[in-house]
Design goal:
Layout lengths: L9 H15 L5 H7 L5 H8 L7 H11 L3 H14 L4 H14 L1 H4 L4 E4 L8 H9 L9 H7 L6 H13 L3 E3 L5 E3 L3 E4 L8 H15 L21 H16 L29
Helix pairs in contact: 5-6, 5-12, 6-12, 8-10, 9-10
């Protein structure tokens, strides 16, 4: 089977998949496959392969289901489709970053630590300290942490978080007072409910409310509603997690400010089918 991760555009992958099927399956034909993925004839599919027509979402979903891509491959292929529709150089660069992140050879290089309990993230100061530790010239002391914050956080809370981070082996202090992180990514386990983490999300939601009054050049807020099928939720989660990784790739030791990024996905409606009379 062809690996989608070695491709830079979706049409090339589809063309090679067709050639692969022609050589490996004597019963395969373009007409038959076009019918299987929802076309009334192969004419429209041929126009897509020639680049004369774009890949519509319904067609993409049908092709992916027919080929049998798994969740990660699905996400990668969708990103190839999105990149093929990019209209600016910046969009292409962003999609290249995303595709690079989705590649299994890339993701396997990360040194990641996940915790089975959420106590380490019961307060937003924990993640802030971890972010401050990435700064090249920041002298890591509870007092300096407190001074650097926009919010008023008691020194006692900072001290507890500071000590726990060191105790867990996540951060070490150098002789010059600067900190060094042991892992590239530190988080709780995915899709595990941690009671103590609830406080963290409530706190950062409150911080977001205050941040809405900041100058627009200092913050970015995006919020929207969209229809999704339940079977698309795992893929949506994966895209959000990869987006987080891409944003952290922008980090540098020469940063001037620590920023908070919040991403949330949750249902607003009931199951529409179940509410039909």
């Amino acid at each position: 089977m062809l690996s989608v991760y070695s491709y830079k555009d979706p049409i090339s992958y589809i063309k090679d998949f067709i050639e692969f099927k022609r050589h490996s399956d004597s019963s395969f034909s373009l007409r038959k496959w076009a019918l299987e993925i929802g076309f009334s004839s192969p004419a429209t599919l041929i126009e897509i392969l020639k680049g004369n027509k774009s890949l519509r979402p319904a067609v993409v979903k049908s092709i992916i289901g027919n080929i049998g891509l798994d969740k990660s491959e699905y996400s990668y292929f969708l990103s190839l489709v999105a990149k093929s529709k990019a209209t600016t150089d910046l969009e292409e660069i962003l999609y290249d970053l995303f595709l690079n992140e989705l590649s299994p050879t890339k993701s396997s290089t990360y040194n990641t630590k996940r915790f089975t309990d959420g106590d380490l993230f019961s307060h937003w100061i924990f993640t802030t300290i971890l972010a401050l530790a990435e700064l090249k010239n920041f002298k890591m002391t509870p007092e300096n942490i407190q001074i650097s914050l926009r919010e008023d956080v008691p020194l006692e809370i900072i001290q507890v978080a500071f000590n726990l981070i060191i105790e867990k082996g996540l951060m070490t202090l150098k002789e010059n007072g600067q900190a060094e992180l042991r892992y590239d990514f530190i988080s709780t386990e995915n899709d595990k409910k941690h009671e103590s983490v609830k406080d963290y999300f409530v706190q950062v939601a409150d911080l977001s409310k205050k941040a809405i009054d900041l100058p627009t050049e200092e913050r970015e807020f995006q919020s929207f509603s969209l229809p999704l099928n339940k079977d698309q939720i795992p893929l949506a989660k994966e895209i959000i997690r990869k987006c987080r990784n891409n944003l952290t790739a922008l980090s540098t030791q020469n940063c001037e400010v620590i920023y908070q990024m919040n991403m949330a996905l949750f249902p607003l409606s009931l199951d529409i089918d179940s509410t039909k009379g």
